[in-house]
Amino acid sequence: MKSLRVVRPSYPYNYLSLWAMKELMYRIWIGLLLLCLTVGGAWSQQRIKVYGYVIDREDKPIELASVKVAGKAIGTATNLKGAYSLALTPTTDSIALEFSCIGYRSVTKSFPKGITQDLRLNVTLPDASTELSTVVVAAPSKKQQNMSTIAAENIRVAVGPSTGVESLVGTYAGVTQNNELSAQYSVRGGNYDENMVYVNGIEIPRPLLVRTAQQEGLSFVHPEMTQAVNFSAGGYTAEYGDKMSSVLDIRYKTPKEFEGSVEVGLQGDQVYIGSRGKKLSQITGLRFKDGRTLLGSLDTKGEYEPLYFDAQSYIVGRLNDRWSLSFLGNVSLTHYQFKPQTRETSFGTLSDIKKLKVYFEGQERDRFVSLFGAFSATYTPSSEQRHVVSVHFYNSREMETYDIDGSYFLDNAKEGDSKQPNVSDNLSALATGTNMEHARNRLRYTLATLSYSNLLQLKQGHLLKGGLSARLEDVNDFISEWTRRDSAGYNVPHHSDRIEMLHNLYSQNHLRSYRLSAYLVDQFSLELPQGELSLYPGIRASYWGFNKEFIASPRFVAAFTPTRQKALTLRFATGLYYQAPFYKEIRTSQRDQENNNIVVLNKQIRSQGSLHVLLGGDYNFQLDGRNFRFTTELYYKYLYHLNPYRVDNVKVRYLGTNTGSGYVAGIDLKLFGQFVPDVDSWLTASLLTSKQRIPGIGEMPLPNAPSYNVSLFFQDYFPGYKRIRLSLRGVLSGGLPQFRPTEEFLPPAFIGSSYKRVDLGLIYRFFDRSTDTVRAKSSFWKLFSAVDLSLECFNLLDNTNVSGFYWVTDAFHQQFAVPNYLTRRQLNARLRIDF
């Protein structure tokens, strides 16, 4: 048997094939290497970035500002610290980057030779309020949607007896101020209780017992400490509290270096000091106001001794990059003492002029002391998060005491008649009598609040805000007041068997309650082909333990800027807004067996409600090379569960029950711009109609709803010589309903006269370190940065405005409404030194 032999096949090209395979692998590796180098180069080009910060003129970060390549759909947004990073492909072609945030002027950075490597680029956006307008429709940023802004430099030149932020707010569209002695204002038909004031995110309480503007004292907001002012006349987002009319949001400044100012004047003085260290900064302000000169122009003559004092401080400590602590403290003192002597008032028509003469005995002594303190801790773990915990405390001690007897004589005025009335005059007088007023009123209340708020950036251009708060409330109220009138020897009202007071009110109540609230706001922008759409949906909820009421307030705000017409911004806002009651709103009176009015607290009270619908727009344009903005807002507010009230001077007296309903509708117009180059001015006009319906009484207008209002704030300077600057404030407002002084809630007797006032100020800059380079070198002048001398004329046209009426009844039971005139023309001078 033959053995099998395996014959291996012969491959003549074996070695050649092996070499070919090695060659192929070598080429593959070379190809892969080139491919990696190519892809790596391309990848490195894709990772080129432009980065930096977007800030405002105060070096504060602007969160969620838009950063994009002009003409392309490539962009990003800044985070909560204002930082951004934009990925680009390197290019040698011309490229432009657009930085914008509605509420700021847009900035474009052009690069004609392109960008080929990483670039750090910090950009400052000018505030639109100082360049274009005071009405800001903010993209998701610190400047809230549907808010107006006031530039800090305009606050310094405000003119009027009540200077400061409120003086300028009173000239805004939809806002009415009809008492120059008071800082209070009404917005779109509401009263001052319906307005909120925030300072550094904390709502500021106010005294409750104030009856007249003379008792009011200084407002909380210190103008020298203010950095940013935002104001909304309605349609604000859910982060603001449960009130129906407006919100004034104040931010105090953080100084960059040591600064200060001293101001002395005929009607008040103030001192401000600010400093900054590595870890600590502080601002402190003292104010003192003397109202004797101003009150001396009233019809009632006597010894006025008012004292208004205010001291506050804001301290910020930075522990590290993540933690910071702050404290805001305020002490306010108002001491008002008045010994009236005489009053002489003429009123009526040209053909029927009447004169009221009153001779007084007694005095009034009032004292209001309030303490406020707020501690806040801010934790910023990253550029996408911010958490704030605050504890704030407010205590107010209020006392109002007076015993005043006034003998009055009402008669037809005689030409040249200035003598005192005698017995024969009394026989022909229309009305004679004695009015006796007595009060021993005391109120003390304390608020303690713990709150938490956070900001969370979910993604670029998308911000979520939320907050929780719990507040304890303690109020002690003791009221004892009465008015007795003796007319022609008879007590009014007259009863043969007893002496009855014309008016009396007694109260001894103690309220202890708690209040919980929470809110959530979603803020985001959408880049649509048609334009930029900013949306602010949100909801707010609260619970009050006194009446066990829970309310939920959904709110929605939107703004749209068309791509083809970026000078135009359209706005829409709607929502349910509630006026959560506090102590003043829950007080109602009941008559006892002796016919005395006793104050009781109504536990059935509910929050007043309002359904808001607002549609508005801003249009930016240029005229003669200067920037202007025209703003229009249409609004409608359906009011329900109204708590009807009457206004006496500045005191609001509520009925204490939810018996009313009604509506407010109107239109607000505003033209803002540089009427004169380089300075801001504005003109506003408002038309309004309102009705409230009260069962058993009927329809009537709201007490604080004038049918029209026109306001002007105007600045000017001498051409070519800006050292002399003029500031003018003018107001024309329609009359308000006037009610008879009865215990019953009745329709108004008539509509009062219009409020007309013009205040003029002239400011001369005596020294300016930036321009007076020669004097600035001297050892004396180098201590100061600026010195200003101001001359002011209040009520330039000497208009006779009315704050209310004093009602007199004659022997035939005919009532005469004697006007309580406000201040006449006054002069004031101020010297201000900045350092």
UniProtKB/TrEMBL annotation:
InterPro entries: CarboxyPept-like_regulatory, Plug_dom, Plug_dom_sf
Keywords: Receptor
Ranges where the TonB-dependent receptor plug domain occurs: 143-242
SUPFAM superfamilies, A to Z: Carboxypeptidase regulatory domain-like, Porins
Keyword tRNA-binding: no
Gene3D superfamilies attached to this UniProt entry: Carboxypeptidase-like, regulatory domain, TonB-dependent receptor, plug domain
Protein name per its UniProtKB record: TonB-dependent receptor
Source organism of the structure: Porphyromonas endodontalis (strain ATCC 35406 / DSM 24491 / JCM 8526 / CCUG 16442 / BCRC 14492 / NCTC 13058 / HG 370)
